[in-house]
Amino acid sequence: MVGVQTPISLASLEPAALAGFTVEHHATIGSTNDRALELARQGQGQTWVVADRQEGGRGRSGRNWSSPSGNFYASLSLVDPCPMAVSPQLSFVAGVAIFDAVQTLTGCGARLAIKWPNDLLLDGAKLSGLLLEGGSSGASFVMTVGIGLNLVTHPADTPYRATDLATAGYGIDRDDLLAALCISFRHGLELWNKGQGFAAIRAEWLQRAAFLNERITISSGHQPRHGIFETLDPHGRLVLATEQGRIFVEAGDLYPLHNDFGS
Known about the structure:
Layout: E1 5-6, H1 14-18, E2 22-29, H2 32-41, E3 47-54, E4 72-79, H3 90-106, E5 112-115, E6 119-122, E7 125-137, E8 140-149, H4 174-192, H5 198-207, E9 215-219, E10 225-232, E11 238-242, E12 245-249, E13 253-256
Parallel strand pairs: 2-3
Antiparallel strand pairs: 1-2, 3-4, 4-8, 5-6, 6-7, 7-8, 9-10, 9-13, 10-11, 11-12
Helix pairs in contact: 3-4, 3-5
C-alpha cells in the first residue's frame, strides 16, 4: 500500500458515520480502487478509501485517470452487495448518488446530467467518472465503486470535453463532497435493495439522463452505431432506436451526434 494513512475526523464528515460508512484517508496512493478491493477481500466493506492524489488512477477500459492534487478521488469497498448477476446496476446507483451529492452542495441541478453509463456532466462537459471492479473472494462477492470528480482542475486533451467545479464557479470542499456523497449513496443502496429496487433507481437515473430521446453515437470497439436514445430497459441496457430496429447496448461510450469530440 502506497501513501501515508491518516484518520479523518472533521466535523463535515460526521454524516459519513451517521450513514454507516467508515473512511480511510491517504495523502498519496497508487489506486483507491486497489486499496478498497483489498479491504473488501479482508471482509471490510462500507469503507471509503479517499486520497489527495493517485499515482496509478484508472478509468474504464484501462484508461489512465489523471489524478493531480486538489480533485476528489474515492473508492467504496462493498462485500456481498448483491447477486453478481445484477452488480452492473451499481453503476446507476452510483451515478444518481454523485449527481445528488453535487446538486446538494451547488444547487446547479439544471446544469447537471448523467451521460450513459455513468459520467456526470456539467454544462455538457465531463465532471466525473466512475469505475466498478470486483469478483469472487472466497465465499463472498466483493466490489469497489471508484469515483473521480474534478473539483479544481480538469484535463485538456480528452476524447470528451471536460470541466471542473471551480471553473464553473463552485468552490466545493473535498470533505463536504464526501459527506454529501455518503448520504446520497446510502439512500441509493437502500432504494436499490441489492437489485430488488432497480426499477426505482432506473426511474431516478432516467430523470437525470443526458441526451435522452436525442440522436447519439455509441462506440464500443466495433462499428459505431447511430440512433435515438430511447430509454434504459429493465436490465439497465441502453435502448437505441435505429433504422434497422431497436438495439440493446450493455457497454460502450456515448456521444451526441452533434458531438464535440476532443473539443
